[in-house]
């Protein structure tokens, strides 16, 4: 987890995407590391085998973050998940922006490249973690509406893809060759997904149940 103030997030986004909390409200952005698959997902699936499982990863993340919420019975804790949408079909929060302003991972975007080679093509940005490269995911946001932290100082994310050439390579790989996952290794990483985990995420969602030994 990395902590942030809601104001840092709202300051870099258009009003339509603002979180409806005062600027000094405390929040935490939650990442999953490569070991999540073995340490959280597989035990969760084993334990929940007799219940209905619709999306194993989303339900596992939800289970664990709601358990965190239970640890603070005297506090209001609002939880937003990366997969949740508003009625307008906009995401409840922009996960990569939250990770960047919290200093958790650097959100590389088209504007980070001085000499843009893509013309009119739409280019999506991607977060890179200084330890895990692209082998991680942003899973949720925990908000504590009753806790105000005006004194919190904003950290800068680690700019680990610092050359123009590497940034172009990263955005090229992410936008046009994301299936092969090469963008995840744009830097030297300390840990990456296991072969089993790679196979799971490379499998179409409807077929993942079979990999986990579940019936749909």
From TrEMBL:
Keyword Cytoplasm present in the record's keywords: the answer is: yes
Q: Which GO terms describe its cellular component?
A: cytoplasm
Query: What's one GO BP annotation on this UniProt entry?
Result: cobalamin metabolic process
- InterPro entries associated with the record: MMACHC (IPR032037)
Q: Where in the cell is it found?
A: Cytoplasm
UniProt keywords (A-Z) are: Cobalamin, Cobalt, Cytoplasm, FAD, Flavoprotein, FMN, NADP, Oxidoreductase
Q: By its UniProt entry, which Pfam families does this protein fall under?
A: MMACHC (PF16690)
In which family does this protein belong, per the annotation? Belongs to the MMACHC family.
> What protein name does the entry list?
Cyanocobalamin reductase / alkylcobalamin dealkylase
Native organism is Dryoscopus gambensis
Q: Which gene encodes it?
A: Mmachc
């Amino acid at each position: 987890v990395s902590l942030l103030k809601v104001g840092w997030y709202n300051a870099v986004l258009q009003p339509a995407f603002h979180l409806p909390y005062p600027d000094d409200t405390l929040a935490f952005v939650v990442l999953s590391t490569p070991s999540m698959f073995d340490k959280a997902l597989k035990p969760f699936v084993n334990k929940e085998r007799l219940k209905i499982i619709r999306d194993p990863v989303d339900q596992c993340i939800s289970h664990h973050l709601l358990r965190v919420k239970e640890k603070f019975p005297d506090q209001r804790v609002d939880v937003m998940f990366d997969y949740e949408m508003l009625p307008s079909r906009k995401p409840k929060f922009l996960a990569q922006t939250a990770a960047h302003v919290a200093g958790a991972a650097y959100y590389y975007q088209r504007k980070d490249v001085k000499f843009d080679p893509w013309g009119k093509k739409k280019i999506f940005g991607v977060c890179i973690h200084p330890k895990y490269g692209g082998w991680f995911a942003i899973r949720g946001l925990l908000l504590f509406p009753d806790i105000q932290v005006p004194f919190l100082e904003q950290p800068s994310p680690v700019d680990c893809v610092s050359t123009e050439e590497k940034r172009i390579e990263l955005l090229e790989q992410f936008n046009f060759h994301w299936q092969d996952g090469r963008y995840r290794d744009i830097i030297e990483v300390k840990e990456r997904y296991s072969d089993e985990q790679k196979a799971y995420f490379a499998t179409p969602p409807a077929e993942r149940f079979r990999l986990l030994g579940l019936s749909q």
